[in-house]
Design brief:
Layout (H helix, E strand, L loop, with lengths): L4 E5 L1 E2 L6 E2 L6 H23 L9 H7 L5 H6 L4 H8 L7 E5 L8 E3 L10 E9 L1 H14 L6 E13 L2 E6 L10 E6 L13 E5 L2 E8 L4 E7 L5 E5 L2 H18 L10 H8 L27 E3 L8 E4 L10 E3 L14
Parallel strand pairs: 1-5
Antiparallel strand pairs: 1-4, 2-3, 6-7, 7-8, 7-9, 10-11, 11-12, 12-13, 14-15, 15-16
Helix pairs in contact: 1-4
Amino acid sequence: MGMFDTVYAELDCPFCGRQYRYSPMTWEDSEREVKQHKQWQVESRQRHLRGEKVLFSMQEHWAERDGFEDVDAWIAQLDTPDKIEAYRTRRHLGLAEIQTKEFDCVLTEFYIGDEVPQYSGHYFIPEDFKCAGCSAADRVGAALSSSKGAAHESVYVKVWLEIEDRSLKAVLVRDPQTGEPAQEIFKHTPPEPRPPDPHPPLHFKQRGIQAHATYDNELGAYNAQVTYLPEQFTFSGQTEEELREVFEYFVAGYLYLLGKDPQDGTSLHEHLHIICRHLPTDFEPYGEREREAPDCSCGCRHFLELPGKLGMDWGVCGNPASPRAGLLTFEHQGCEQFEARPNV
């Protein structure tokens, strides 16, 4: 796209009559904006000193440009009375702002009477600017019709930069050949609102477990997938209520298998201790035998471990000669019929 230069000029819009004249700011408005700018510089400097990454920070360049070696000293003088006055009386305030690439400069400001580089002779350069007066009238009309979704327009007034003897002689608002004004109107049509999605994506979360569901038009149902778990779980349902019920049931069961009972706070490990039968032949404190021999945890070949993490503590006794045969057994309960595995 490239960089524009800017031409500032006093002129009257030939369409809406708006007068572009030099208009200095009030002291109060200027002081407020200058202090806001200084506060922004202070906060940017603090972020830099804290080691935060600040994109496009040019404070050191600006300080050096203004003759300061210390950035903090440069920031401190940004709101002095002379700085406020200079900001209040900036030369371009109130003038028409016309952007051009014809002068081959980079972000340079031009005013009537300024020298124009690389040009000689007498000719006219056509450009345009967005008229604030025409645009203001357009904004009023757009506001009145916005409820109907109507398009609004941006109005650009044509101007001609008159160049003579390598200087900007004048800015004309009428075509030098026809004497008529011209403008371009750009319509901005607001995007049509999207119709509401009858089957929006769904998200479920309970006790740290999450699931996302999207609608499958071919199947006519939602497909849900539980996320952020080591295992992959999926389920389907017709409605959000159905999916939520299935998800809550899944969460309760999954946490229960992990030893977390969502109902009464009792872990599955504790629950198994409650239902496990204790026999006199068990080691103390589960039975009456003193602990003087190995128990199931020492590698009994008949101790059939439960699946998953429960198998680290729990199993079923598979020894027909044991009083615990076929019973849920905690690894430290043991019996007199212990038989070690061949490799233990």
